[in-house]
Design a protein that fits this description.
Chain lengths: 108, 525
């Protein structure tokens, strides 16, 4: 079944990545079709597997600070900063709605 | 140039005995990198720091105190490993100009052993791909495209259409690393392996490509693709060298809680002479549609080789093999969707000029920074993780994953020691042909034989086996039991000795010496 524009729009907002063109949407359709083959497999009674190491206890270290004090190092890679802050544009402003957004989906 | 003379000799011994100095070795490799620039195997060549490291190594050798076998040995690292002070790009616009503030654990371990880091190698963007063709720095060319062996088998076209259009891909995504090792510019290289990204280019470039057991080697500092499947990969010219590098890298890392805590003891590979106690499994599902008759023939011959030497060779079944690639497709895109979320332009990497709001800045940054392949996977992954799809796709894939892993458990539990399979469906294809299909299709086709080992977390290795009719390398894959790298590598070494894979006869013009033929392989162990 075809993916609706609502879902495509929803995905663009969730992923903060856009479909750019018809090919992008095609790509998703094909990916879904490909993944649908999974439903041929009988998985009754099978538990999902998160990790091949599920039978082991993962290492948890002590909650002690062992390294840090590298503020300058870390700030070096940021483009916009003020003193020791990373500077972001204003938050709490949602992406414009589909009709107002510059997205390929507008055409569909 | 003296180093490259003589078959398979020991560079480490040469360094120890003073027959060659670390600086000479480093300069020789740097010079060769310059001469083979057209391969596009390297994104960054860290010439200054490499020479400094070589100098330090030389001093240690003069004092008679080398740090180990790897001291002074030039190596290369795939550009998705963090390297302090050296740009780490993942072949993406998103990280162009990003200078890592730290070394990945595996890089640190190699440096601590005195290895000389020559540079960062090219890959598919964010390790997504099977050709090393989709990075922003362009595709990597397979050194074998310029070998006498390939050239003499190519049908000469019109004079103008020579090797420029005929060159073949390296495979991927660790193509740069494979090409670097294959063309003698370094003695070992790090790659990464999530779906076959180390073994695939190893097969196409005629080098050894080892994928260790998941949990054996630290992923700290390896920019993640699929956290539950990624492993650092090792590329070398012979199996013994792979064992040496493995020895220096394996072991628990407190900075990576997915590394197991068992004590790891580095090992030397015995020279196996008696294979009669071995049981080799041939999984019939690996006779996949599209498998070239040539590779099938090599595979058969290999099975016979073991049989004639007295090993037990039996056909086995891994029934869910063909779903591995579908399963991978869902789990990979899902984990990618999550892992790529960190790239928002705020703390590092590319940042868009758009500044109306945080969200629009993130969206623009990601639009500008990621290529179509990456964006496509992020969107697919998010689709599979939507509430309405989670159970049907993501959880379903996790269940299928268990079935795939169980297939292996059953086979190894029935007495089989090692599985023998092809690594790729065919030899390396010309670039012009490869790009006719899109990335996802290619990955789905090319990963078919390598992916399941990642799904199950098992160790696997590509061993160069012979040359195809086109004069290009063909490799075969051995898959072993969890954490049984010693057994896996011992068998691989025995096989390597039997097949005597030919040395690449690279025809490269050197800056200083004019046309010069590179005839010998050199290992360091």
């Amino acid at each position: 079944q075809e993916v609706t524009v609502e879902v495509l729009d929803h995905l663009e907002r969730l992923a903060l990545v856009d479909f750019r063109d018809a090919e992008g949407v095609e790509r998703l359709q094909k990916a879904i079709g490909f993944a649908d083959q999974l439903h041929e497999v009988n998985t009754d009674g099978v538990e999902p597997m998160d990790s091949v190491l599920e039978d082991r206890c993962l290492y948890l270290r002590e909650d002690d600070v062992t390294e840090g004090n590298c503020t300058n190092e870390l700030l070096k890679n940021a483009r916009e900063k003020v003193e020791e802050y990373f500077v972001a544009p204003p938050g709490n402003i949602p992406l414009p709605k589909l009709e107002e957004r510059e997205t390929f989906l507008q055409g569909s | 140039a003296a180093l490259k003379g003589g078959l398979r000799f020991q560079v480490s011994a040469a360094l120890k005995e003073g027959r060659v100095t670390a600086t000479e070795l480093c300069q020789s490799c740097l010079s060769l990198i310059r001469s083979t620039k057209f391969l596009n195997a390297y994104i960054t060549v860290a010439e200054e720091t490499a020479l400094k490291q070589a100098e330090e190594s030389e001093k240690r050798y003069q004092r008679g105190q080398p740090l180990g076998v790897l001291d002074g040995i030039p190596i290369a690292v795939k550009d998705n490993f963090n390297t302090a002070g050296i740009e780490t790009t993942c072949a993406s616009n998103m990280l162009k100009g990003y200078i890592s503030p730290y070394n990945a654990t595996v890089v640190q371990k190699l440096l601590d052993q005195g290895a000389v880091l020559l540079g960062k190698t090219n890959l598919d963007e964010f390790a997504m791909g099977s050709g090393s063709t989709d990075g922003v720095f362009g595709p990597v060319r397979n050194p074998w495209s310029y070998s006498r062996q390939y050239k003499e088998k190519s049908v000469p076209k019109s004079c103008s259409e020579d090797e420029e259009s005929n060159w073949v891909i390296t495979g991927g995504s660790s193509g740069g690393s494979a090409a670097a090792v294959s063309s003698f510019t370094c003695f070992a290289a790090l790659g990464s392996d999530t779906g076959g990204s180390t073994r695939n280019p190893a097969a196409h470039c005629g080098v050894v490509g080892l994928k260790p057991t998941y949990g054996l080697i630290s992923r700290h500092g390896l920019i993640p693709l699929v956290n539950s499947m990624d492993v650092p990969g090792i590329l070398t010219r012979c199996v013994d060298d792979a064992a040496v590098v493995l020895g220096s890298l394996a072991g628990h890392d407190p900075k990576d809680s997915t590394t197991i805590q068992d004590n790891f003891k580095p090992f030397e590979l015995p020279n196996l002479t008696d294979v009669s106690k071995l049981s080799i499994g041939i999984p019939k599902e690996y006779h996949a549609p599209g498998l070239s008759s040539e590779i099938l023939a090599f595979w058969s011959k290999a099975a016979d080789l073991f049989k004639n030497a007295g090993a037990k060779v039996i056909e086995v079944s891994l029934p869910h093999t063909r779903y591995s690639i579908v399963c991978y497709h869902v789990l990979c895109t899902a984990e990618v969707a999550s892992n790529m979320a960190r790239f928002d332009g705020l703390e590092y990497g590319h940042r868009s000029d758009m500044n109306k709001s945080t969200e629009s800045m993130y969206a623009a940054t990601r639009r500008e920074g990621f290529n179509d392949v990456v964006r496509g996977r992020i969107l697919s992954g998010n689709y599979f993780l939507l509430k309405q799809n989670y159970e049907n796709y993501f959880i379903k894939a996790q269940k299928v994953r268990r079935l795939i892993a169980n297939d292996f458990v059953k086979v190894f539990g029935s007495g089989v020691d090692i599985l023998l399979t092809p690594t790729t469906l065919s030899d390396a294809v010309p670039y012009m042909e490869f790009i006719k299909e899109d990335n996802r299709t290619r990955s789905a086709q090319d990963d078919i034989l390598t992916q399941a080992a990642n799904m199950a977390g098992l160790p696997a290795i590509n061993v160069p086996t012979g040359l195809s009719e086109r004069g290009l390398p063909i490799g075969l894959q051995f898959i072993g039991r969890s954490f049984q790298e010693k057994q896996l590598l011992t068998v691989a070494k025995w096989f390597e000795k039997q097949v005597k894979f030919p040395v690449i006869e690279l025809e490269v013009k050197r800056h200083d010496h004019g046309a010069f033929q590179h005839q010998k392989s050199a290992s360091f162990s």
